[in-house]
Amino acid sequence: MSKFSDLTRLPDIRGHFGPYGGRFVSETLSFALDDLAETYLRLRDDPDFQAEFDHDLAHYVGRPSPLYHAERWSKQLGGAQVWLKREDLNHTGAHKVNNTIGQALLAKKSGKPRVIAETGAGQHGVATATVAARLGLRCEVYMGAEDVERQKLNVYRMRLLGANVIPVESGTRTLKDAMNEALRDWVTNVDDTFYIIGTVAGPHPYPMLVRDFNAVVGREARRQSFEEFGRLPDALIACVGGGSNAMGLFYPFVEDDEVAMIGVEAGGDGVETGRHAAPLASGAPRGVLHGNRTYLMSDEGGQVSDTHSVSAGLDYPGVGPEHALWKDVGRVEYVAANDDAVLEAFRELTHVEGIMPALESAHALAHAKVLAPTMRPDQHIVVNLSGRGDKDIMTVAKIDGIEL
Amino acid sequence: MNRIDQRFADLKAQGRRALIPYLTAGDPAPAHTVGFMHALVAAGADVIELGVPFSDPMADGPVIQKACERALKHGVRLADLFEMVREFREQDSETPVVLMGYLNPVERIGLDAFADQAVAAGVDGVLTVDMPPEEAEEFGPVLKARGLASIFLVAPTTSRERAATICAHGEGYLYYVALKGVTGAATLNAADVAEHLAPLRELTTLPLCVGFGIRDGASAAEVGRVADGVIVGSALVNRIAENVERPEAIPQALQAVLGEMRTALDALPPR
User: Fold this and answer.
1) Which of B49, B124, B222, B260 is catalytic?
2) Is the pLDDT of residue A238 over 90?
3) What mean pLDDT do residues A272-285 have?
4) Cα B261 to Cα B236: distance, rounded to the nearest angstrom
5) Omega of the bond prior to A205 within 30 degrees of 0, cis?
6) Quick check: B189 pLDDT over 90?
7) Domain A64-93+215-399 has CATH 3.40.50.1370
8) How far apart are the C-alpha atoms of A192 and A173, rounded to whole Å?
């Protein structure tokens, strides 16, 4: 009997994970969220809906994704065996598509002809534009103007897919501002628009349904662990921005008390410098943003703080509410990896295994570099390789002083 | 009696509609706000909604977003707002003041500390845009214990069942959001508003005030025919934005907008 069994029964009916989560939105959106929660809870247990979802994951996304033994890298690290859950091999190159497939099916069932999304690095925007193209839905993606600049490749990808990318000039011109603008769009066009949120944050029921759609990652990894090394892994590692890939990997292991779980946030220049995006690891105060209560980086006046990370996808001041609870109850340990260590891990995996990880995923790898050498060779770590690094080539080249 | 209830009782006795202006505190600079509040009262304001600037005002359109940015450049905090209300009260002990904003700045200083300081400063009500009644289980009683009114929004999309819950929790007045959208969006449809207000009357005796999309005397009068009060925000904040370089012109510009609405409302037959 797991001491964490209670965690599998969350959220409660109003979307609370202990003191976190909930639904903090202006009144106009309440009916749409009620409607979405009702639709989702009905379809979640509908075998036809699940069959359609599973079919799309198999034949469109290409699941299951492999659990790859990074043998050479493990030897080099000189400790535990490191296994990579290869979400980078999914169609569109990241775990994000698991969720957009699921939400697009909900959009289709609800009969809404238009979808909107927010995006940081552009991975969720691309995954949304992709499923919108496939289903013939109009698609508009909000993206901070600063991110539009640093992720030009994904911006053009989205445009090729037929989406309209709207640069957001307000606030800090990054992911949080894109989410504000998407919420403003939704409140205006709520009758014909489905908002596809890209992470396990936002108002209830989003944290729950984004978790459930991504949990396929952990279910596969659990099964594959038994197939590959005959038992549960000793530790799981995943990067955490909003926290959807970590949630997807961790959730099916919540009751496996012997499996350690570590979420790795963006340490930026270092948590001690204040220039980071690590609300959990830095012990940020409790706050409310984008519809949920969570750990939130804000100043003494309650204004949301600027965040810093080499990776646009983790550049967010809050975190999914379920992670906030998991930190409090001690189920998951949350640490931060600094930009320098992340870039080193990015280069190392590319060189040693011929796999170029997304800078987001390289946060998890950076921690594997720390953890593996402290463990025995007969122990196993599963790292979520949540996305591939092609999109980051420009960023890394720029750091190297190379103009492409 | 709370100043808000007193004011609406007086208005009812006179058969008049409430005129409720909104300003973002500290816009364009903190030193101007109290003067603007007095100017609004002189032009016929019955209640003042004082906006708490927030870095991420997700229910607001570009006009109020920019007002927040101007105020935050000066580092305006809740402590500054309390000081503004205290100063306002030195000359005006009757006009109700409602703080309107988002939950995070309030939670950051703590619900009890917020409520204590608000009461001490002379605040009468609190409208937290991103806190529906379901999430107000903790905050509601904290406000009530100090005689502060919890004011809630009702939207065109609110179901009758939810409206009943909101009415049961609401105090002071009910803020009916006239259109789907953010503040400062398109002009409202008065017939549509009338249709939505009628069922609310069956649920509550609270005064029904309407905001979003009211920009001049004509739109105020249209809404005034069916509502107990009109709320005007972006139309005023626009006047501030136009005059940031010469703030001395702002009080008169605000009074021109509000005065036109006052005249239009008072020309309606008594309620």
Assistant:
1) B49
2) yes
3) 97
4) 11
5) yes
6) no
7) no
8) 27
Residues sharing a CB contact under 8 Å with residue B6, sequence separation 6 or more, in sequence order:
B94, B96
Task: Name the phi and psi angles at B208, rounded to 5.
Answer: -100, 115
pLDDT bin (cut points 50, 70, 90) of residue A178 is very high
Interchain proximity A23–B132, CB inside 8 Å: yes
Integer Cα distance of A196 and A99 in angstroms: 9
Query: Does the structure show a pLDDT above 90 at A171?
Result: no
Write the CA distances from A373 to A70, A80, A82, A101, A352, integer angstroms: 14, 7, 11, 38, 16
pLDDT at B185 over 90: no
A29: exposed, middle or buried (C-beta count within 10 Å: 0-12, 13-18, 19+)? buried
Q: Where are the alpha helices (H) located in A20-95, listed in sequence order?
A: 30-44, 47-56, 71-77
Instruction: Tell me the helix, strand and coil percentages in chain B, rounded to 5.
Output: 50, 15, 35
Contacts of A284 in chain B (CB under 8 A): none
Q: Which of B72, B103, B156 sits opposite A303 (nearest CB)?
A: B72
Whether A206 contacts A99, CB under 8 Å: no
Please judge whether A30 and B155 are an interchain contact, meaning their C-beta atoms are less than 8 angstroms apart: yes
Confidence at A137, pLDDT banded by 50, 70, 90: very high
Q: Which of B159, B151, B167, B171 is nearest to B196 (CA)?
A: B159
Give A295's strand partners: A286
- Model-wide pTM > 0.90: yes
Instruction: With beta carbons less than 8 A apart as the criterion, state whether A143 and A119 touch.
Output: yes
User: C-alpha angle A294/A297/A299, rounded to 5°?
Assistant: 125
Cα separation, B253 vs B237, whole angstroms: 10
Does the active-site annotation cover A298? no
Q: Which two tokens stand for residue B47?
A: 């209640």
Which of A181, A303, A305, A307 to mutate against chain B (most B CBs within 10 Å)?
A303
Same fold, A5-57+96-210 and A64-93+215-399: yes
What ipTM is given for this predicted complex? 0.95
Of the candidates A359, A294, A357, which has an alpha carbon nearest to the alpha carbon of residue A322?
A294
Catalytic residue among A65, A85, A96, A353: A96
* Predicted confidence (pLDDT) at residue A342 exceeds the cutoff of 90: yes
Beta-bridge mates of residue B98: B49, B125
**Fold that domain B3-266 belongs to in CATH:** TIM Barrel (3.20.20)
With both helix axes pointing from N to C terminus, report the angle between A96-110 and A47-56 in degrees, rounded to the nearest 10: 140
Q: Which residues of B touch A31 (CB under 8 A)?
A: 155, 157-159, 162
Amino acid identity at A65: S
Exposure class string for A258-288: b at 16+ Cβ within 10 A, else e: ebbbbbbbbbbeebeeebbbbbbbbebebbb
Reported as a pLDDT band with limits 50, 70 and 90, residue B182 is confident
Mean pLDDT of B69-96: 98
Question: Domain limits of chain B?
Answer: 3-266
Instruction: Return the CATH fold of A5-57+96-210.
Output: Rossmann fold (3.40.50)
Which residues, 6+ apart, have CB-to-CB distance to A126 below 8 Å?
A: A92, A93, A96, A119, A154, A157, A158, A161
